[in-house]
Amino acid sequence: MGTTLRTPWETLREPLTKRQVLRTRAGCGMTVWVAPMPGYRKAHAMITTRYGSLDTHLPDGTQLPDGIAHFLEHKMFQTQSGDVFDLYAARGASANAFTTFTHTSYLFTSTRGFDENLDTLLETMASITTTTEGIEREKGIIGQELAMYDDDPGWRGYFGLLQALYRRHPVRIDIGGTAQTIAPIDAAILRQTHSAYYSPANLMLFVAGDVEPAEVLAHVDQTFGTRVLGRRHRRPAAAEPARVAERSRSEALAISRPHVWLGFKDVPGRGPAGRVRRRVQGAMLMEILCGDGGLVQAPLYDEGWVDDTFGASYEAEHDYAFAWMAAEVDAVKPFQRRLRAALRDAAAQGIGAADLERCRRRFLGRHLRVFNAPESCVAWMQGIALEDAAPGALVAALDAATVRGLQRRLRELVAAPYAWMLLTPRR
Amino acid sequence: MALATRMRDVPVTREIAPGVRLHLLRTDRFTTSYCRVAFHRDLGAEATATAVLAQVLQSATAKHPSRKALADRLGDLYGASLHVGVSKLGDRQLFVGSLDWPTAHVPRARGVLVQGLRLLREVICEPKRGPAGGLAPEIVATEIANHRHALRSQRDDKGRHALRGCLQTLCADEPYGLEVQGREEDLASVTPEGLAALHGRLLARAPVEVFLVGDLGLREATAVVRKHLLWPGREARPARVPPAASVRSARARPRHLVEHEAITQGKVVLGSRGRIRADSTASVAAETLAGVLGGGSYGRLFKVVREEHGLCYYASASWHRPKGILLVQIGVDPAQEARARRMIARLTKEVGGGQLDPAAHDAFLRAVEHAVAAMQDSPRSIVAWYQQRLALGGAGTPAAVLAALRRVTPAQVRAVGSRIALDTTFALRPEEA
Question: What is the pLDDT, as a whole number, of residue B393?
């Protein structure tokens, strides 16, 4: 049994717009974030557990089947009183859920009946109701979801690249698992997993809209009580060698022309602030190189190597970090040579002060858009919470970015271990 | 935080030049402004060229003569989001240029607003040209090649490929059957000079709707749009607004098309139709039919085909108002396709017979109610809805749409159900099946 605690709301201020965000820890241990948005008709709520596909074991060391986090997400919508979707739909609310590497989130958007919908969201987390028949039926539905992703070149390319980059880290495992790995899932393992990772102290609630923060907290107290239940899950770092698993992988798929993915295995930052800074630098670098008009994108586009399908991103958690770029191309090997050359050229040419300033402005513009909708505001708060960062972390990291620092990061990245993933048209 | 001004649920409209109407949604709630300029065209012989023109225009301008120069300018405007493209509104092709850019919490916000409008005009009206007066030939060549790739890659999205396959036969000799991005075989006739001529005709003659969302009143909006966005050279008598809606009965014997590919999940699209005019009461009943059948997770298809029997990951129905078409789409285990089809037929007959499951019907109405209320927070949703209303007629406000849906009776759904019949099915199956 936990101890009773009560803390007042902490007011956080976003530095760019000066908007206030409120945060507290409910008595049950759940972290609650509220962004008041007066005048908005929509309210958006999302509850997140720090449990995702990277959590391959129960805390007692029991190995979990690949895909169970996603499977559990599907089964959480079944309650004693029926399908949760029906309850939301009866009030006109739209609801959904998603599973990522690091967390699983459940959400709704409503324009009326916010209190009832919030109760439903909270109650959905409190317990799991499932039957053998329901589990077996779900395997059919998820099997079709996985089959859909099997035909999706974006998904196949992304996970193929991760399998090439990583030897052991669970980031290389498909979030949904496979039909084979989900086959042995039963009620007992679902209950154990829920018990381990869905305790209030491991949950975070985010709300944005024209809502009263105290009432939000009252609903949490009403559902979970005011005694701390469970504890926050801290994911241990997975051991992973610096070198890549394979320099190149390839798969044949029903596509019209080859898709080429290039990934660089990077080193994550240390501590919350260091991680944010390093992730923001990585993202800025990808924008400066591969964004529209970027140091790599512009010459490749002008020379006809790439079109609008060219894209790039940078992703990082506490124990892994990687950058990727991808394009649909005509000829694989010549493109690979040209892309590597363009990256070397960019590293040699260097990043200019104007490149940095434009990039900073682009990121600020994107950040400003966060406050145009409750959904994006909730996503922003969740990002901060998952990183244990401050609301001003992004703006601070943008301000702190320097040409010299980015230049150093670019040289590091170009020298980092890399891997290719090739999707080729199936003849 | 001060309470933000509530938006109207329909824009204020003013004609600012022959055939050019400005629609303003005033609001101080958002950190960005949004401007959308839509040119109305027939979806026909020039569809491909129009799609390529959009790509060419967003590649460079006379003042910013490279993709990089234009991208840099957008970056200077705090990552302004520029889009030039084509979309389908019934039998009509819309050529659209839009800009979404931060105009609050940035230095000299009013100036940034004006700069955004000027940049949008520059992109739409002042393209980079070649020595012979056509559009820049090197850009045209690049974008033709890119467009060819884009058309071929459409096949990679299996769900959309199946939908296209169904519509091409369902509306074989109608504009709606044409892919809005055009056809690969038409690319051979696209030239820099031809694109320049098409561009000139669009600017001079095409009917234009300008939507502006921002913190400014009608008088100021009219003045800044006239000064910074409107272009010279409009003809005194612009072209007629092309029709968007046309309806037909289903063919006497449905056509069943099958394609095979090296895929895992099967896709099936079923197209039914009837002579249900877009502006009729029957069309409102048809919306109800589609909503109850498969408008969301509350719909009968989701409940029965997915949840009860676990045959599909997705199963949905939608009503295409301009054409009086009901589309049902599923992603299905190939071994279960026949069973899923039987269920769809049974459920379509059930709902089309006026048997409206009370929970599904109620949830459908509440979902629409939610969507109408949520529009207040999304000017783009209001713009999209209003654009369709201008083209198709019907209820004057989103709230009136909801009221009309609430008045629909099971007898009206039964009546409309009896007028809709299966016309075309398209199945994409794995090669082994």
Answer: 87
A20, A42, A307: residue with CB nearest B377: A42
Q: Is the pLDDT of residue B77 over 60?
A: yes
A348-363 residue pLDDT tens: 999 999 999 999 999 9
CB atoms under 10 Å from CB of A169, counted, come to: 21
Question: Which candidate in A19, A210, A361 is best for mutational testing of the B interface (most B CBs within 10 A)?
Answer: A361
Provide the number of structural domains found in chain B: 2
B218-229 pLDDT, tens digit each: 999 999 999 999
Please indicate, yes or no, whether residues B205 and B313 belong to a single structural domain of this protein: no
Lowest pLDDT segment from A161-175, B6-20, B356-370, B409-423:
B6-20
Spatial separation of the C-alpha atoms in residues A254 and B228, rounded to whole Å: 48
The pLDDT tens digits for B334-353 are 999 999 999 999 999 999 99
- Which residue out of A137, A138, A144, A394 would a mutagenesis test of the B interface target, given it has the greatest number of B Cβ atoms within 10 Å? A144
Interchain contact, B145 vs A36, CB within 8 Å: no
Q: Residue B260 is part of a domain; what is its CATH number?
A: 3.30.830.10
Handedness of CA A139, A145, A150, A151 (dihedral sign): positive
Is some CB atom of chain B closer than 8 A to the CB atom of A184? no
Regarding whether B131 and B58 lie in a shared domain, the answer is yes
CATH 3.30.360.10 fits A248-425, yes or no: no
Task: Tell me what pLDDT residue B107 has.
Answer: 81
Q: What number is the average pLDDT over the span A30-43? A: 96
B190 and B123 part of one domain: yes
Note whether A368 contacts B102, CB cutoff 8 Å.
Answer: yes
Compute the nearest-CA separation of B74 from chain A (Å): 8
Contacts of B314 in chain A (CB under 8 A): 148
Closest-approach residue (CA) in chain B for A258: B153
Residues in chain B with CB shorter than 8 Å from the CB of A144 are 265, 311-313, 331-333
- Gyration radius of chain B over CA positions: 23
Residue of A nearest to B152 (CA): A256
Mean pLDDT of A221-248: 94
| Distances, alpha carbon A171 to alpha carbons A66, A238, A397, B28, in Å | 11, 10, 26, 43
Percent of chain B with pLDDT over 90: 89
**Which residues in chain B are contacts of A40 at CB distance < 8 A?**
4, 29, 376-377
Check CB contact of A20 with chain B, cutoff 8 Å.
yes
Q: How far is A258 from chain B (nearest CA, A)?
A: 10
Can you give the pLDDT at residue B2? 41
pLDDT of residue B7: 67
CATH number, domain A10-224: 3.30.830.10
- Are the beta carbons of A38 and B363 separated by less than 8 Å? no
In a domain, B217, yes or no: yes
Cβ contact (<8 Å) for A144 and B374?
A: no
Please, which residues bridge with residue A251 across strands? A423
Average of per-residue pLDDT across A24-28: 95
Q: Which residues of A touch B74 (CB under 8 A)?
A: 292
Q: pLDDT (tens digit, 9 = 90+) per residue, A113-158?
A: 999 999 999 999 999 998 999 999 999 999 999 999 999 999 999 9
Q: Across the interface, do A328 and B31 touch by the CB < 8 Å criterion? A: no
